[in-house]
């Protein structure tokens, strides 16, 4: 069986296994959950807290609300998921470009690495909930002709902020992984910096770059969904989850349908990164864990 088909089969098998575990726990778990003192160890299994999977899928075909012309939950979730997917992709691309530029700067100049790398690591300690209002405020002050900073750009900027870190650190490690003997060989042939980078350092970095791309993609998706809530942006899957959760009442399947949409966004992004990995597969030797 081809490698791609095997991976797809494993992915579907994992989803089916998760669905089976969901229904199994709902069937055998206590309605009030499992408690250890005041701490809830396992969740409740009542229909209000943990609806059946078939109830969730039935809800997809029903209108979002009782208003005239209301779209179905499926169409609303698909639309919101595509919006979040596009924003996360923009943030991921920006994070990849920024992280790659920083890695190239640090690998070519030791002083830059000593000056920049601590701040790159420190940047990830800033809470996202504190960063979102700042990005929105700074973005609203950007004026260049007819250009207007839109709210989705703030969300994409936050997603890129989370995505650049694994790229910069992983690519820097990969660029430095080229064997010293091969570097000496390139120097003996008077190969310039760009030739050494293209023919030696970048191929050596692929095994570190691919895990970094996966981590960055996951961070971009999570960052986009959380930033939608923090910035107040409407239309994305993050705000949809919040809105469906607030207005769910006796309709527990509705917020879970939105959560499944967010999971689908993550799976699509992971699949796209895997396609990039297939394109770079000829450079890959052994893959390092991120």
UniProtKB/TrEMBL annotation:
The keyword Endoplasmic reticulum does not apply. PANTHER family: ABC TRANSPORTER PERMEASE PROTEIN MJ0413-RELATED, ALKANE SULFONATE ABC TRANSPORTER-RELATED, MEMBRANE SUBUNIT. Gene3D superfamilies: MetI-like (1.10.3720.10). One of its GO terms (cellular component) is plasma membrane. Residues 81-277 form the ABC transmembrane type-1 domain. This is ABC transporter permease subunit. Keywords: Cell membrane, Membrane, Transmembrane, Transmembrane helix, Transport. Belongs to the binding-protein-dependent transport system permease family.
């Amino acid at each position: 069986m081809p490698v791609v088909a095997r991976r797809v089969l494993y992915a579907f098998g994992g989803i089916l296994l998760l669905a089976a575990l969901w229904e199994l726990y709902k069937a055998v778990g206590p309605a009030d959950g499992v408690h250890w003192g005041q701490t809830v160890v396992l969740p409740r299994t009542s229909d209000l807290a943990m609806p059946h999977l078939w109830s969730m899928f039935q809800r997809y075909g029903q209108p979002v609300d009782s208003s005239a012309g209301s779209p179905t939950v499926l169409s609303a979730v698909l639309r919101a998921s595509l919006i979040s997917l596009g924003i996360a992709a923009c943030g991921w691309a920006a994070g990849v470009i920024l992280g790659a530029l920083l890695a190239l700067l640090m690998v070519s100049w030791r002083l830059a690495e000593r000056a920049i790398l601590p701040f790159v690591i420190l940047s990830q300690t800033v809470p996202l909930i504190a960063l979102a209002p700042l990005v929105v405020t700074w973005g609203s002050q950007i004026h260049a002709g007819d250009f207007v900073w839109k709210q989705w750009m703030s969300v994409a900027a936050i997603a890129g902020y989370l995505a650049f870190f694994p790229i910069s650190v992983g690519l820097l490690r990969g660029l430095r992984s080229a064997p010293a003997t091969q570097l000496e060989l390139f120097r003996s042939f008077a190969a310039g910096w760009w030739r050494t980078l293209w023919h030696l350092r970048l191929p050596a970095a692929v095994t570190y770059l691919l895990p970094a791309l996966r981590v960055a993609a996951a961070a971009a998706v999570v960052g986009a969904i959380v930033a939608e809530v923090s910035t107040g942006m409407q239309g994305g899957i993050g705000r949809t989850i919040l809105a469906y959760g607030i207005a769910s009442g006796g309709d527990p399947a509705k917020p879970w349908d939105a959560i499944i949409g967010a999971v689908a966004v993550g799976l699509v992004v992971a699949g796209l990164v895997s396609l990039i990995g297939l394109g770079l597969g000829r450079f890959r030797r052994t893959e390092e864990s991120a």
